[in-house]
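Weekly modeling sync, notes
Attendees: S.R. (lead), two postdocs, one rotation student

Agenda item 3: backlog of single-chain predictions. S.R. asked that every request posted to the team notebook include the full sequence so nobody has to chase files. The rotation student volunteered to paste the first one in as an example of the format we agreed on. Action items at the bottom.

Example entry:
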Amino acid sequence: MKVFGLLFLLLSVNGAKAIVKPADGLWHTADDPAIGSGLVLTTQNDLTLISLFTYSENGENIWYVGSGQIDEEGILEVNLYQTQDGQNLLIEHPQSATHIDETDLLKIEFLGSNRATLQINGSEVKIITPLHFGHDISYGFPDLSGQWAVANLATNQSYVLDLSLEFEGQLGSQIQYCYVTANSNISGCIVSCHINLAYPNTNKCVFSDPHDEGGLVTFVGFENLGNKKLQGKTQATNTDFDFQLFRINQAPNILPNDGHWRTVDDPDVGSGLVMRTQGGYTVVLIYSYDEAGKPEWKIASGQFDENGLFSAELFTPFGGSSIQNMEPFVAQIEPQSQTIEVQLDGLELARLSIDGSAPKMIQNYNFGTGVFSTDHYMLDDNAFNYPDQTGRWLMVNQDLSVSRLVNFSYFDPNWSATPPSPRIYGARSYRVNRNDDNDFYLEFTCLKILSYDFFVYDVVPYCTGRLFERPESADIKFYFEDIGHRKFRGYFDGFDDDERNFETIDRNSEYFDFYRVD
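Predicted structure, as returned to the notebook:
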């Protein structure tokens, strides 16, 4: 939704670094009833985008948007904007909506990445937490069973754990969960979660790092215990989160990157949707306008099939209570539902259809970061935009046998060319810092131009690179529609030959997933 782009111009991204980054995804209040209100939070480069879906005093469903930065005290204060006179996102090239002059002041104080308090216009304080759908829940935290990629920034190590619940016991008010891993060379409780019913503020999990020779343990308070990402500290008094775990979903099909999505023809103040996947289930929230130009939201949930197709009933709720209501009540559902279909073309690109409408292209909305374009991939006669990949990533291969922390830096592929090559003019090229590991190297280039004067070069809608794992090497391909700010994917054909033929690499090839490490 381009409305967010306008809000960002009012913000400075050079302020003090926040002490906490909230978990991306759907959040709700502790007293949220069925079909209640909620928020969607997405943070990129210290900039947090908020969508709030709720109800008016008359029970009409309404939504607000806002954006801001969390300060060094863990507090986020933003103005919530409401819009009107918009057009439904299914209309081709819909007109821009307008802002309603009145705004509401939202204040969120984060106690951790997965726990916060909420106030709107000075209302009474409410506890909010992420919505842990798709996973079993005990005492407010999700079941940690499953595969996790681990990044230990203190030791620059990474590995994969396959956790399962081995033991659950209770003695009085004390409860303990013991998680072990299927890794054959690791034994004992890798994750031990301690719950004190009498003093819940002391609840925590302890991670015993099996690859740390110093035997350090990592502390993760429940306020930083998420369903898709965990953040911890290798020392209990350390203020830096130098230990991070990313939940891996080994579905055979591609799944959409979490975040705010919008149509390619979205106007300045327009519509959009949110997609969030947990435990193989995806929730889709659509923010748009009815025939009278009033904002409305709809919700659906389901699964993507092996062909990357999501098909589900789309519901419109009404008659609920506002999110700040201290006595919330259950909303109702309009009797006439719709059918929504989302067909993925990549992790960041899809086609949206409702009740058999002509499909519209939608793309994950990247904000708060450098965004670059390439004419090698066109959408609606516009150059495709993709986010900057500079920074630290956790790299994990398809069968989870290889993991590695890598640090991508940008380089100009023309810097040493005399004269410069027009074919790579304006290209984005990235390489891994060789100082991290002399036995490993990775670089790739995303081209920008299609032609130079009257000469048209080969058009390839993907980025090409080379992966070196001493003593072997392999080609690696990155589709533009897979390049996201938080996650992206690269495909390769193995290390068994030196021939360069990217056309043989496709979505059936082996792949590496990259998770951004904060």
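Discussion: group reviewed the output briefly. The CA atoms of residues 462 and 479 lie 4 Å apart.
Action items: rotation student to repeat for the remaining queue; S.R. to check formatting next week.
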